[in-house]
Amino acid sequence: MNACTVQMYEELIAAFDRADADDDVKAIIVTGAGKAFCAGADLERGADTWGANSKLTDMSKQERYVGNGGGRIVRRMFDCHKPIIGAINGAAVGVGITMTLPMDIRLAVKGAKIGFVFASRGIVPEACSSWFLPRIVGISKALEWCYSAKIFRTEEGLEAGYFAACTSPMNSCRRHARWRRSLLITARRCR
What we know:
Blueprint (H helix, E strand, L loop, with lengths): L5 H16 L6 E4 L4 E3 L22 H4 L4 H10 L5 E5 L2 E3 L1 H4 L6 E5 L3 E3 L13 H9 L1 H10 L2 E3 H7 L4 E3 L1 H21 L2
Parallel strand pairs: 1-3, 2-4, 3-5, 4-6, 5-8
Antiparallel strand pairs: 6-7
Helix pairs in contact: 1-3, 5-6
């Protein structure tokens, strides 16, 4: 289910660093392997899931505000100089959906499960959710999704303006390629 790990965060940050440094890269498409986009944080390690962030009292102020993996990857994407297309190919919950917040265009397959489920775990929304989400869908919808921790389908996200389009799985690759081509054409015109 593509659960996020510290290694995944580091690899994503490195990939965005490389893409930003490469003038041949015109756009970035982020998608999941298999039938899910991302099931959220890998919780198999229990209390150790949060690593150093679970011991805030032992950290200096400077270390505390570096951020968790979700916050770091979201801030890195926000600073990216290339357009980012999120190709949400299946379920995306927790950090799996919040990592899509800074993406320029979010496309999704019809019927995929989406959820900002932090309240059900007794934690606050992470990865800069409180800044990005209201700017995308409005404060009322952002609060509804976060306070209720409900799982909803991509069609509701499309209606709220979170997704640019929802397609069938068969058409999603073609749709992503069309978006990428239109970005490339625009980039060439702007030179």
